[in-house]
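User: Hey, my collaborator sent me this sequence without any context and asked if I could get a structure. I don't really work with proteins. Can you help?
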Amino acid sequence: LEEQLALLDFNDFDEYKRIMLEIEALRKEAYSNLTAWDHVCIARSPKRPKATDYINELFTNFIEFHGDYYYGDDRSIISGIGLFEDIPVTVIAQAKGKNIEENIDRNFGSTNPEGFRKALRIAKQAEKFNRPIITIVDTSGAFPGRGAEERGQSRAIASNLAAFSNIKVPVIAIVIGE
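Assistant: No problem. I've predicted the 3D structure and written it out in structure-token form, which is a compact way to encode the shape of the chain:
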């Protein structure tokens, strides 16, 4: 069907609509009998778009910020400012890689304490400048390693939960994976 769609004349709206309805019906049928594990496998599919794909498509003039000002930069968190339909916004995204090297670099999307602190720093900056925050969630959870706990993982998560519940600008959360 997608091949037929690609070959369509742009003036043939009725045929386009028919194919789109057929695709939607097939999608509903395919997803109607999935098990819980099937849903997990779909959420973890390496073919799904990543946070970087959404950032590149949705935001113009995106400027990435790095570091938590205490320990370092956690590459599992992409944060920065950009324009969404000409409106300045702050973006905070959990990032997985598209291949094994990128996944290792981004810790498979599992955030360390410095990543949570970076996210909080950027959120407070958004509040200071009255910019809405758009978050993109794609993670199986915080990094469970000993070093993360030694650097204050639990405290960083708790601080973020408390701060985000009181932040004075709109926060939109988009879940794209797990």
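In plain terms: Strands lie at 60-65, 77-84, 87-94, 133-137, 171-175. You can pass these tokens on to your collaborator as they are.
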